[in-house]
Specification:
- The protein is an alpha+beta fold and 192 residues long.
- The chain has two domains: 3-60, no CATH class; 81-175.
- 16% of the residues lie in helices and 35% in strands.
- It contains two helices and nine strands.
- Strands 5-6-8-9 form a four-stranded mixed sheet, with no helix packed on it. The chain has a three-stranded antiparallel sheet with strand order 3-4-7, with no helix packed on it. The chain has a two-stranded antiparallel ribbon with strand order 1-2.
- Strand 3 and strand 4 (89-96) form a beta hairpin.
- The longest helix has 21 residues, at 40-60.
C-alpha cells in the first residue's frame, strides 16, 4: 500500500479553493512517499517511544536548562554583607553598597543535615546613575526555618558574567538574625 502526501503548489489558489469548497487537480500535487513494511512500523514506533521516554527522564532528572551543579570555593566571602533572617521561612538578606544591585536565588541543594542555598549578586550597570546609599535586598526561600541552611554567594558583573565562577560560603543559619521590627505608625496628635 502506498502512502501519499499532499503538497499545495499555489497558496492563493488553495485558499480560494477552500473558501469556495472546491479543490481542483491544478491546486494539488500528489507526491508518493516510500511505504514502510509492517515489520518496520513497530520498530519506528518503539524508537519514538524510547526517545520520548528519554526526553521525559531527562527533564525529570534536572538536566534541562537552568540547572547546574555549582562549584564551591574555600575562599572566604569578600563581597557585600550577606546574612540569614529567621522568619517562618529562611530569608537571605544582602546589604548592597549602592542601589542597582540585584539578588537572585539560583539553586537549593540538599546535603547531609543541611540545605545549601546558592545566590547571585549582580552589580549595577555603570552607565546608569544609582543611589549612593546602602540597600538591603531580601530573598525568601521555600525552606522552613527548622532546617539548617548554609548560604553560598557569588558576584556577577552587570552583563551577567561571573567575576569568579565559584560560590563562597557567606552565611549559616546558626548565625541567623531576627527580622527587623516593623516601623511604628505615626500617631495623630490632638490640636490644642
Amino acid at each position: 500500500m502506498l502512502y501519499y502526501s499532499l503538497a499545495i503548489s499555489q497558496a492563493s489558489d488553495a485558499i480560494s479553493a477552500c473558501r469556495h469548497r472546491t479543490i481542483s487537480r491544478k491546486t494539488m500535487n500528489i507526491v508518493p512517499i516510500a511505504p514502510f513494511s509492517r515489520k518496520v512500523r513497530p520498530s519506528i514506533r518503539g524508537a519514538a517511544r524510547a526517545l520520548a521516554l528519554a526526553g521525559l527522564a531527562c527533564s525529570l532528572t534536572a538536566c534541562g536548562p537552568g540547572r547546574f551543579v555549582p562549584s564551591k570555593s574555600d575562599v572566604a566571602w569578600s563581597g557585600p554583607e550577606v546574612w540569614i533572617e529567621s522568619t517562618p521561612q529562611w530569608t537571605v538578606v544582602a546589604k548592597a553598597p549602592t542601589g542597582g544591585w540585584t539578588v537572585t536565588l539560583d539553586q537549593l541543594m540538599e546535603q547531609r543535615g543541611r540545605t545549601e542555598v546558592f545566590v547571585t549578586l549582580k552589580r549595577p550597570n555603570p552607565t546608569f546613575l544609582v543611589t549612593a546609599a546602602e540597600v538591603e535586598q531580601r530573598v525568601i526561600t521555600p525552606l522552613k526555618n527548622n532546617i539548617p541552611v548554609w548560604v553560598y554567594a557569588r558576584i556577577q558583573n552587570f552583563k551577567g558574567e561571573p567575576e569568579d565562577g565559584s560560590f563562597s560560603l557567606a552565611s549559616k543559619s546558626q548565625d541567623a538574625k531576627a527580622p527587623p521590627a516593623p516601623p511604628e505608625k505615626p500617631t495623630k496628635q490632638a490640636d490644642e
